[in-house]
UniProtKB/TrEMBL annotation:
Segments annotated as WD repeats: 43-85, 258-299, 301-342
Domain of life, per lineage: Eukaryota
Stretches of the chain forming a coiled coil according to its record: none
Protein name stated in the entry: DDB1- and CUL4-associated factor 13
GO-annotated biological processes: maturation of SSU-rRNA from tricistronic rRNA transcript (SSU-rRNA, 5.8S rRNA, LSU-rRNA)
Native source species: Rhododendron griersonianum
Keywords: Repeat, WD repeat
UniProt keyword Lipoprotein present: no
GTP-binding is among the record's keywords: no
One Gene Ontology cellular component: small-subunit processome
Pfam family, one: WD40
Amino acid sequence: MCQRVFRNFDPSLRTQEKAVEYVRALNAAKMEKIFARPFVGAMDGHIDSVSCMAKNPNHLKGIFSGSMDGDIRLWDIASRSRPDRCSCDGEMTKSSEEQGSILASGSGHCAKQADNLSVSWPPRCCTWSDSVYRWTYSCIMWYRLHQLAAYVWKNAFWAVDHQCDGNLFATAGAQVDIWDHNRSQPVNSFEWGKDTVISVRFNPGEPNVLATSANDRSIAIYDLRMSSPTTKLIMRANEDCSCYSYDARKLDEAKCVHKDHVSAVMDIDYSPTGREFVTGSYDRTIRIFQYNGGHSREIYHTKRMQRVFCVKFSCDGSYVISGSDDANLRLWKANASEQLGVV
């Protein structure tokens, strides 16, 4: 029979209670960091720097990566193997994006498509959609086992993104062009200034709204239902190694400045929950920030990992995938000390 123990919680009898609890909490946090094992594994196979990645929102295990030598590979995250790859002579792969069942990519000059998995070379940018597309410096090619069509345009494509739900996709370069699956020319074009637009992203919640960034430190918001751009912001800071969060309804000042990197931030990706995001930097580290946190909650790095060019959250938010200058993809836990089963 257990004997009941009576405790007196009178603060005057336990003068060191706060100090003891503080030491216990500090030790627990230290032990959690000491025994954390965030690194899950590496996926090697590229022979040049990994410059872009694309994930399919309908599949948890698959991810595409593109490298500077124009090689695109499909990876199985669970087995950390590559079930498919494509290659072609050409320029580097710059960016990629997926939506639906097809990958579209932009780069130097050629591409190829097999079944429902799109492969492109040397990709500069790519995206998933319900059809197969290929972006190059001055033309877009569409392949499915053999070439079906070629879309030629006058400007280089630096980035591409597809609507989360729709038939439109956007390309960025000398201007922002809106394309339809069934048209050989853009259905709409936006231009605000003469500087090159280097990135474009559709709003997942508002399919007709997209944002771009350009070489002149500007962020512009476009609405496809309007004939002209909506809002433009010129950032005061440039390559100060920080990330800035803005409220799209009020772009006068940043809602939060996320610091800690010591070199240029190369890529950023939000978690599916929208509560945190991951960044990759030239300082060879990966950091995870809360959406409203000024400093990172996690920092990942290894001795062999070089400059990080691209990062992605997995579709379930449990893992982070990074691509770096040492031609490797690495798989990390989103929560370093979390106990996870088989990937």
